Amino acid sequence: MMHEIRSAQPVEPFHLVLEFNSGEYRIVDIRPFLKGPVFEPLKNERFFKQVKVDRDAGTVVWPGDIDLDPDVLYEHSKPYLP
Asked: What pTM, to 2 d.p., does this model score?
């Protein structure tokens, strides 16, 4: 199943609450994904909070063309009740 993200809300440091196209809300800690120079800006909490959803790509994005795969985010997230 291909997952698409409908909304994203930054919460506690480096966690996102994501709403998926299935209607599920899930929470994910993105710190394990912050490896390599392209993700270095995300280690700044103020920059991290600039997260947006790219509806065409169905995933989360940040300035500078930084994004994360929605299927990977789904696999590493836990159910969340809003």
From this structure: 0.93
